[in-house]
Each structure stands twice: as C-alpha cells, then as structure tokens.
Design brief:
The structure is a homotrimer of 471-residue chains. The first copy, chain A, is an all-alpha fold and 471 residues long. Chain A has 22 helices and 6 strands. Chains A and C meet through helix 1, helix 4, helix 17, helix 20 and helix 21 of A and helix 1, helix 3, helix 12, helix 13 and helix 21 of C.
C-alpha cells in the first residue's frame, strides 16, 4: 500500500511540469544559476545597481568555477585605466592581458591575427602611419594624447573614409560643428577605438568592444566582442550571428552568405538540437550537423586540427584588397602588420590544407578539391576584371575626365571604389562560402553590369561633354 | 515484488518519450491545449470550417480563462460592421474598443501613440487634410464614403507616394485601369486601411491588420498587428520579428539593425532558453540575457518603469522627418496629431530618462551616458548634411536645372528624397540602436558618397548641358 | 523499506539531467542515433574517413529502417557515373531515378515541375536550343561532350547572363584566361550543372546539388537540394530556409518576403514549438501555427488536398517573366518545357483553387477572396508599367539613343533588365506572399521611382547630347 502511494506520488510529481505549463506554453527547464556569495561586495552592490550583469555572470562557467568579479577587474599595475572604485582598485576595461591570466594561448593566437590589428589596419591607419613616421610608439597613451587618432580619422580625406571626399567637397568635413561621428558609431564599433584615459580618469573612445580596440595598457583587441561579458559563453562564440555582428553588409556579407549556404540552411533547420557546449578540442561531427563560422575558422574540429584564434590561419586568399593575393604573413612573422603586408604563398597553402581538413570530415576529397578549384577560378576572374577597372580610372585621369586631387568625390572614383570594396568582395566571398546569389547577383552582376556598366556610361557622357565644350 | 514491478513499470514509462523519438528527432513535450466546450456553436462549426483559428485559440490564455469567441466578436451597438451571422450578432473587425473591454489601459496608451495614427500620418494624410478642410469628421464612415480615402491615396502626386511623380509622367497615374494598388498591398498593410462597410455589409479595405487601421466604429488601430489572433501571445509580442513585420527595409530597418547589434546577437544565440511568458511588470533581467524591441520600448522592465503601449514614449529624437527634432507631443496633448506636430523638448528629455532606466539594468552609467552622447552627435551630423542637401535642390530649382511642378520625377528630386527618407534614416537609426553597418555603410556612406555624390554629379551634368544648349 | 529505497533511487535518477547541466546550459535530450552494423564495409570505412556523413545518416529515418549506403549508391546499369569503388559498383551521383526506387510518385511530381527543368530553362537554355536545332538529344552525355554546355553558357552574350554584355564590351568575355566562372558558382549552384562523366571517370560539373541538375543517367534534378543528404529530413524540407537557399536575393526574394510576412513572424516567434515530423498527408493545423513555404506549395496540408512536388501546381500567375501570364502547362502536358511555354488559364485557375484550400483552413472566405483580388490588381499594374518600359526601350533604339547589337551593355538596356528581372518581380512577389515592403519599397518604388526614373533621365541626357552633337 505504502509503496503504491509512493509510486502514485511520484507519478504526480512527473505530471507537475505539465501542470505548470497550463497557460499555453510548454514549460522549459530553468537554466542552472550559480549561487551568490553574499560576502562578495562587488556582487552584493551590483546585484542592486545593475542586476543584468550579475545574472549574466551567474549563468557563466566562471561563476560555477568560483571566478568572480575581482579576478578579471582588479587593475594591473601598468594599466592607466585602473583606479579606485569604492575602496577597490579596478578597471572597467579588462583587456586581453587580463584574459591571458588564464587563457594565454588563446590570447597569443588572437594577437597575431588581423582581428587584433583591425583598428590600425582600418580607420586608425592614418594615425598609425603618422606616429611611426614621427618615430613615436603608436600603442602608447602619450602618443594618442599628442596626435588624437579619433580626430585624424574624422578629418582625413581618403577612401578609408569613403564619405570623406564628398564631405570635403560640401565643406562639412572642415566645419568643427560637423563631428563626422559615423567614424565612431560606424567604423570603430567593429574595428575598435583607441581608448584614452584622461586626466580625470574618464575614458575617451568609450564605450567600445570593437575587436581591434587599442586598450589603455597598450594591448590590442577585446575578447568580449565574441564572448560577450559576463557569460563568456562558448555556445555564443560558436553560433554564426556572433560573427555576423561585424561580418555583414555591402562590403563583406559573410553572415548573409552563410545564411544562403547549405551549411546555414541546415543550421537554421536543426541547430537548436545540436550540442553547443562540448569542450574545445572535442567538438566534432557527433555534435553538429553542419559547420558554423567557428567550426571552419577557429575550432579544433573533430580533433583533426588545432584550435586557433587567428582567424586568417586557414585561409588561402586575401579577399578584401583591391587585387586578391595569397594570405599575408601574420603579425608574429612581420615587424609591422600595418605597414608590411607580405603575401606568403607558403603559409597560404598551409592554410588551405587546414581548411580542407575540416571539409573532409563530411565531404569526399573529389567534392572538396572540385569546389576549391572552382573558387580559385572566381578569384582569378575578379582580379582580371579589376585590372580593367583600375586602368579605366587611370585613363580617365589621363584624359582629364576626372581629377586626382580629391580621390573619392567623382562618380568614376565612386564606382571604382564600389567595385573593389563592395560588389567585388561579394563576388569573391560568395564563391568562397557557397552563397551563389552573393557571388552572382550581388557580386559579379553588380560589379560588371551595374557598377562597371554605369562607370562606362558616365565616362562616355563625360567624354562627349568634354568634346562638345572644346568645340 | 509488487513494488518492484511498479517501479519497473514506472521506469518503462519514463523511457517512453525516448522510444517515441526513435526516428531521429528528440521528442518535444506537447503544448497544453484548452478543451472545447461542445455546446459552443461558434467553436463547433469553426472547428470544421477553419480549424486553424480554433487550434490557435485553444493555445491562448483566453481559452484557458474561458474567454471564447463571443466575448470579442459580439457586435457593439454603434459598430456598423456588426451584423447577423448564423443567428448571432457578430463583427469580423473587433477593434481596440473591443479589446478595451478588458485591456482598457493598454488601449488608452496605444491610442495616443503614432502607431494608432499611422494611417492618417501616412498614406491617408491627404484624405484627412481634405476632410478637415471641408469641416467633415475624418473618422466617420460617411466622410469616407463621400471622399474615398483609398482613391485619394492612389491618385495624388506627392512624395508621400514616392512612385507617383514618375507614374504621373508616364500617364499611368491617370489611367483608370492602372489601380496603383501597391498603395494598398504596400503602404496600407502596415499603416492600415480605412475599413468601410458598404450597403450590402461587405467590407472595403479588407482584409487588413495594419496598426493604424481606421475601424468602422471610428477607433484607430489593430491590436492583432502584434498580438496575432487568436493566440494573442505575450511571447510573440516580446519577440523582435513581430516588430520586424513593419520595421524593416530601406526606410526604417530597425529589425536589421537589431539583428546586427550585440543585443540581437545574444538573442539569436540563446533566446530560445529565455522566459518569454513572465507576467507584464515582472519581466526582468532574471528572464532574458539581452533586450528585444519590446523590452526597451514597451515593457515595464525589471519593475523599474511603467509598461507603455505608446512606443514613442521613451524616445528623445524623431528620427523619421527630413530634419530630426525632439519628439512631438503625443495625441493626448495636441488637438490633432496629423496637422499639429509639436516638438517638445521636455517630454523628449523625460523619454530619454525612461530609456536610460532600461539600459542601466545591465550597463554602467558611464557606458550609457557615453553612448547617448555619441548618438546625439550623429543626429546633429545628419541635420547639418540635410541642410546642405535641401539647399542644393532649392538652388537647382532656382537655376532651372529641375522643375518644381512635379515634385518627385527628376533625379535631383529623387536623390533628395532617398537621402532623408531612406539612407538618412538608416544613418540615424543605426546609431540609435547599435548597428554600426547600418549607421555607416547603409547610412552615412550611402547618403554622402552614393546619393549626394550622384546628385552632385547629375546637377553638374545638367548645368553643363544647359550651358551648351544656350550657346 | 526496499520499496522506499527504490523510489528514492528513482527520484535521484530524475534529478540527474539537472545535475549534468551544472555549467549554465539547460540540458537537452540526446537525439536518437541508429546503431551501426559493423559488418557493413561502407559504414565501417566511412566512419573513419568522413564521419560527418555517417553521423548524419544515423540520425535519418533511412538508418532506423535499415536502408543503408548500398541501397542508394549501388550503380544502375545505364548510369555512366557508376563504377568500381573498393570492390563495389557505386555512383556518387544518386539521381532522382535512384530515389524513385522507393519514392516513385514524388519523383514523378517533381519531374514535371519547373524545378526539374530549371537548368535548361535557365543558363543551359542556349545549349538546349542548339542541341535541339541540330537534332541532338540534349539530355545525353554524348551531346554534352560534343557541345560543352558549360562553355556555351560562359561565352554567350545574352540577358540570360546579365553580365555578359558589359563583359563583351571589355573584351574579357573572349579571353580564354577569363573563366566567367560565376556562371558555375552562381547560376549552376541553384539551377544545376550538366554532370558529365569523362573518359577517366572523373566528373565535370561537380560538385553540384542544383535542383535542375542534369544527371549522367539523363534524369533531371537533385532531391538532396531540399532533403539534404544523408538525413533526408522531412523537418528540414518543411522549414523555410531550405527554400531560401535559392529563393532569395534581388531577383526573387521569397525568403525575405516570407520573413516579413505575418506567417514568417509567427514561425520566428514559436516555430521551435511546432511538430515538424508528422507524416506527410497528416500534417495540419494541429501541428503548426502558421504556414511555411512547403505548407502552401507542397504539403497535403490538413488532408484537404494532395501532396505535390510540382511546386507550380498551386499557382495562378507566372511571376518571373517580363510580362506575367497565367501558369504555363507543366512538363507532362507539353512536348518541351524549354521551347514551349504554353500559358494555360484553366490549370492556373485550378491551381488557385488548390492554394485557397490551404488558406481556408485558417482564414475566412471573405479574407481569402479579398486578398487574392488585391494581389491580381498588383500583377495587372505591373504588366501595364512593363508595356510602357518596353516601348521606351524600343523607341530609344528607333531614335538611335541605344544600339541593339549588344543587347545588355547600355544603361537603358540595363534599367530595362532590372525592371522586369529584379524590382518588377519583387513588386509582384511581395504582393503574392504578404510582404508589403517588398511589394512597395523594394518593388514598385524601386521599379518606378528609381529604375524608371533613372532610365528616363538617362534617355533625356542622351537625347540632349545627340541633338547638341548634330548641331
């Protein structure tokens, strides 16, 4: 009897979850939450002041392993951002140097990547070049205070700032009340700001989590770009939309290409059923049905290759420049990744071998070889077309149909830019990652039919007008 | 022995779900479904005739609370859409007046919002102005029958209907067989139709669930725009793609901006694990890891502020007009939201305080203050650029390079429109919601390099031709 | 006592899943995995060589039903792609003929669809026409070897290859080192390649899973386009992003339209809670809250109509051509779907009746009739506009403002193309599938204001220059 009652009780217990869900939504298991040490004064205060970040941390592996606020926020000796905060010495900018206390190898990998250097390769390049030319240390707070990298970026006319040419023409670029602040809320949100600590310890270039952020301690990068504080979840970093925060849009639509691809389609259809938190190095074909960005570019997938945080390591081609070349050497192999772009066939080939190692876990070698062969042809096509386009602009300059002095204000210059920087990348990248509409319609067709077609037509019109005017 | 058997049986029961799933898909718990009262003649008939809506209702809170068809569909006395249906007096257009029977405060909030007024602010504005100028009640069925708002929208030349200028030029706008029906299946699907009940009780402007729908009973809006019938789920209304039904595309890509943002990235990575049906007012940082649209603009998040269905209430800037200004007063504060657009610094500032109250639950005050400061600079930049662009068009009119009589058929007019209505909004909105590519590439760069660059080039060409022709 | 202990044990067992999840992620039930027969030499080898495909198969219904590699990969007698592979006779191109061994009716339905014929209707059309004109069998390996369909596609100037006109002008189209390979990694990835088996049994046109692939055995299509090998999951095929692999982008953005629609919004909000693996013919309103692509175009939804793999069967309009007409007869009703496009009012009307049968399971008849009426008006509008645009180009040819010899290299020709092939389809398709921004902004407004507005302006400029030059 007693036993029967126990069993009935048990059965009732089993029905509870169903009962709870009585209002139309199937009940979910609550996510495990780490306990809070009430003696931790960071936590007890922030739980009231900013409960979201405490909750986020309580969901993290850090929390379950007893790694709490002070472990990452206690200011380092040489970090100008560190300072007093209610009796503690803290920084609000834990740089990769802080993460390296436990994750040294990951930080080292990232440091040699274009990710870490992307502010200096991007909108902070004019500042970097100027500092170097003056013999100054471009990483130091002193140099930044002296030269003001943000203002250099906002006032320079260059295709690096593609709106600068027309802005110059309108006069706005030189007006002090025009802030040109899309440099900050555009470029720098992904590329990273130079974070400068002012006299009164407020931060310039803040808030920012750009992946190439120049930190007050002189280090490059922001790990929380992809491992969002304060969960720092491997699941998040493995999911495609994390990369899609920056890898999207007219100039490098990797997330859109992925979404179109068969890989992305399978992720959309069944990704929620996959295993996302398998430890690094063990994650493999048993866990997921199709690769995400991280699978191919970062993970030690299937134990067949080493994990890397140097995201260029498995690539053959540089697909972003005006003319594609085999991958540059990484930041550990050159003196300076900004000023020295050394294309290196050998490491490019090694990169492709690594990438194929991932592919081959699901595809036959004839499949893999065949695809890469076709992809290489597309890159070659683009390069040939680019040579034609670039010559067309040089000819236009020579004929006086456009003027070189403002390099990015006349239509032929604008189409020239759109071809290499926008549609020409889509053409190449769509082919790289199996997104046919991106390679064809938004790539080759946009480049050739629309941009080059319009450029040719504009030049013809200019030539006719020139000839009529000289009559 | 018996006990052992019972336990074994129990263990077997526990294995059943796994057994059921033997064909490759992990089994899901079935969603709870309310029972059907077989005496309810609405339900028993519609279960055969349109099973989808009955099933949908059975999943709703309404169903579990015993609120069935008649509660919302029984026609109100003054509602011209009410009428006989198999012996019952019903309407197929339950307006916000019907929802207000139980949800009065939510309907009141919504009524003062731009959402409720968006048909009259949008494509039905010419009708509204005409009715007002004739001293007629623009909300009444009689006025609508007399003036035909749909036909006014389809035949007026105005940048409100940005294809109307070129359509006029082609002659199609005046051809009776050209219906110009993208006004209905385009504009009115989001903004709402004027639903008119004809003599024989059929409905014109139907089907429609536009959020600014003008209902036969004279009320404005359609609650089911966001709380889709017949589940009316708070989960759905809290998810971003519900807002994304209308807030997308070249002119206000809020959903795309959200998807790019860190907020959207976290939603994509872990949203399926969050709590979506926590009661209103209790939803907070314990439930979700990042905000959705509703969190910031509507919810009484974390119990720190009041829930509102006036979606403009927490905003400082109007980002949609040609020139951005602090928020207009809402429909309760002016006589007429269509004809009186009163920018009000005070309530705009109060709105920003509310918004910051949401931000501060996860971010430090220096983070929040810093971001808004940068955002305001972007809006200021846009305004300065706009002044330049608008002057450029006025100068072109003055020089005879374009003609004012058809306001939207010549290229300079078209670029002028694209700048404020499309790319210039992306520039501002991308900055507002942390979508850097939308602020930069699809915003500032599209505005300045592409649209303004093309406009300048077109004007130069026109000027040269004018001068050659006058030789 | 024993009993009590057993119950306690059981309770502990029930707690295990919670315990396992201690690191911050709610534990998921593992997906059932079929056992591997260790005597199966395909499996035992491929488990080491390409573990991903074995894992994928182990998740399939095929695996649980004992259908393993040999069942689908054993080469058919008349299949030139079949050959020796470690002692077995296998093909790596299991065509629809292979699938038809078990799924004959589905293959038959697909064979009469535009899906199966889409390579020949698309980029392989010039090859097909040439083969027919020479009296050759366009399906045979011999003809393909003789004529080389891939090279014909890559070297022909035609709006079928919209970049070909400008490429011709640049000289690149005729340069042997210019591969024009976006035809392969663009067009053919969706439309399908002609897979040719060379002398040494390597495959040309490989890898490829385009839905209109011409297989070595002469059959058309690739079932794994939508039912990805090796899971062949009905769940995947029912989810919208599977169709979105090809139905996206500037020329037919069905997935983007779906995402905007109320249907897509509901899918985004609650789709993960729906039943996706209900057997074909039983799937209905009890399983899902809103339709996906498959629901309306393929499924025997709610048991109210027959399942079909002829995706055009339920459509009234052809929305892709320059001028919309009622659906063509399918490939079973004409001698040749490439050369004979017979618009058939009768079967188009039958198609609409079928589509309405789906709609009516969730919508009232006035709702359904009303929507289709509005949609038809939009198609009619587009057709009238198209007549105007086409006449405009013919007039331009007549006046010498553009030249007919290269049909797709001058701006008026390019706008003419963009209008029917890109924006004009978005206009019609957005209306068909309830995506108002696609019908309005990206459709009608892009067509009329931007494309036609620019075309008119360009023609005026050309006319002025012509007149100035002739002075």
């Amino acid at each position: 009897m007693k036993c029967k009652r126990a069993v009935i009780l048990l059965l009732l217990c089993m029905l509870i979850p169903m009962g709870l869900a009585a209002e139309g939504v199937a009940e979910k298991a609550p996510r495990p939450l780490a306990e809070i040490d009430e003696d931790d004064s960071c936590l007890s205060c922030h739980q009231a002041v900013s409960p979201g970040i405490v909750q986020s941390w309580r969901l993290s592996k850090h929390a379950f392993a007893g790694i709490s606020c002070a472990a990452c926020h206690t200011g380092h000796t040489n970090d100008p951002s560190a300072g007093e905060h209610f009796g503690f010495n803290v920084t609000s900018v834990p740089s990769p140097n802080y993460c390296a206390q436990c994750h040294a190898e990951e930080v080292r990998q990232n440091s040699r990547s274009k990710h870490a250097w992307t502010a200096f390769i991007g909108h902070l390049k004019p500042y970097y070049e100027k500092a170097r030319s003056m013999g100054l240390d471009p990483f130091s707070q002193e140099t930044a205070k002296r030269l003001d990298p943000d203002q250099i970026a906002k006032r320079t006319v260059s295709p690096l700032f593609p709106d600068s040419g027309v802005l110059k023409m309108t006069g706005l670029l030189d007006r002090p009340d025009y802030e040109h602040n899309n440099v900050n809320l555009g470029c720098a949100q992904c590329h990273g700001t130079f974070v400068v600590v002012t006299e009164d310890r407020t931060l310039k270039g803040w808030p920012n989590t750009g992946i190439g952020r120049v930190n007050p301690d002189g280090s490059l990068g922001s790990c929380s770009s992809c491992h969002t504080r304060h969960q720092f979840s491997v699941e998040e970093a493995r999911k495609p939309h994390t990369c899609g925060q920056c890898h999207l849009g007219p100039d490098h639509p990797q997330i859109e290409i992925y979404e179109e691809s068969k890989h992305g389609n399978i992720y959309d259809a069944s990704g929620e059923q996959w295993n996302w938190d398998t430890p690094a190095g063990e994650w493999g074909t048993d866990d997921i049905d199709a690769p995400t960005c991280a699978t191919c570019h970062i993970s030690g997938f299937g134990g067949q290759l080493e994990t890397t945080h140097d995201v260029g390591e498995r690539l053959y081609w540089e697909l972003q420049p005006k003319r594609s070349v085999p991958q540059w050497k990484n930041a550990e192999e050159v003196e300076d990744l900004v000023l020295q772009r050394v294309s290196d066939q050998k490491s490019a080939e090694a990169g492709r071998v690594k990438m194929k190692t991932v592919c081959l876990q699901c595809h036959s070698s004839s499949w893999v070889e065949g695809y890469f062969e076709e992809f290489d042809k597309v890159v070659n096509d683009y390069n040939l077309l680019w040579d034609y386009v670039d010559q067309l602009l040089q000819d236009a300059y020579a004929k006086g149909l456009a003027s070189k002095d403002n390099p990015i204000d006349e239509l032929p210059e604008i189409y020239h830019y759109l071809i290499w920087h926008h549609s020409g990348r889509r053409w190449r990248m769509g082919a790289a990652m199996m997104g046919p509409d991106w390679s064809h319609w938004n790539g080759a067709v946009d480049t050739i039919m629309i941009n080059l077609g319009s450029m040719q037509s504009d030049l013809e019109m200019r030539e006719k007008l020139q000839s009529l005017e000289s009559k």
